[in-house]
Design brief:
Helix content: 25-40%
Number of strands: 18
Bound molecules: zinc ion
Shape: elongated
Distance between the termini: 38 Å
Strand content: 15-25%
Strand order of the largest sheet: 4-3-2-1-5-6
Oligomer: single chain
Amino acid sequence: MDAAFDFARRVRAARRRLDERSADALVCFPSRNLQYLTGHYEDPGERHFLFFLPAEGEPVFVAPELAAAEARATWVDDVRTWADEAGPEETLAAVVADLDLTAGRVLVDDTMWARFTQDLRALCPEATFGLASEVLSPLRVRKDEAERAALRAAAGVADEVVDRLRDRGGEFLGWTEAELAAEIKRMLAAAGGEGVAFDTIVAAGPNGASPHHRRSDRPIRAGDPVVLDFGTRVDGYPSDQTRTLVFGGDPTDRFRAVHDVVRTAQAAGVDAVEPGATTGDVDEAARSVVREAGYGDAFVHRTGHGVGLDVHEEPYVVADSDRVLEPGMVFSVEPGVYLDGEFGVRVEDLVVVTDDGAERLNRTARGWRVD
Ligand code: ZN
Ligand code: ZN
């Protein structure tokens, strides 16, 4: 992780909120919450790897011996390890006693596996439990300058790959969706991205009509609209963007018309972004364009989602939401129209709420033509 992230400020803010809510500690397991607080991310595993942030007192990492180096590489001074042959029980019991949590209020990571929460319940029989998001979501939802810089850089890498896909254009006719997805992964890495932020979507022709389609062995044919939704990470922060392109041949008139509608809807959604507006306002701005064009029933999902360390996080841009936009929030604006048996169209950019409007993080062209 980049040293520019201010973990001390994040931890101070988290402890202030713990205190306000009369909670005694946060307990994270490998997750984006853990990354937010310590800079360390790894995939969850079966061994107890837990971070305790008490409202008062020293934060503690409990790590399996084989991951001790990763825990010690963070700012956390008190790292307590346990060996496979001994198991984590004694170490955990000591931490819980030291932090006086057995009868406290403990907020556990929202994605913590049940077996770990059950162990904590057994260790803290008198404690009450809640979710870490009570404390962390309000902090994570507003991105500071360093976070925005990372998100901007990740969006820039993805934009660059879209530009190259357009340049190569007709070369992809005859490729399968899966082959193109693999090529996109290579291109993201070559452009400076850290892997893929989520499963790449390449959905050609009628496959585009299913928003859940990932990719298949279907070849891309002339005239096919191809929904391309992918992202990468820079300094741990992801991008998420969609373009619907036609790599060669002539798409139908209906596709051309629908693509215009979706682009107009997407622009209207972005135009509605400003501090004080609600996420419901943004959804309605985009959705009303699609509805008035007669495709309201074919826009089957919310208009967008927050993007931070998690690719899907608060705030969700959903109909009738009265969540008020604040400077520093980052989310997608991604209306789509899905016509069974025909095609799908989605156009997605990330935006940051600024002091007086919105900054688009994705700047690459939004049209379907590659030339
Ligand atoms: Zn996306
Ligand atoms: Zn998205």
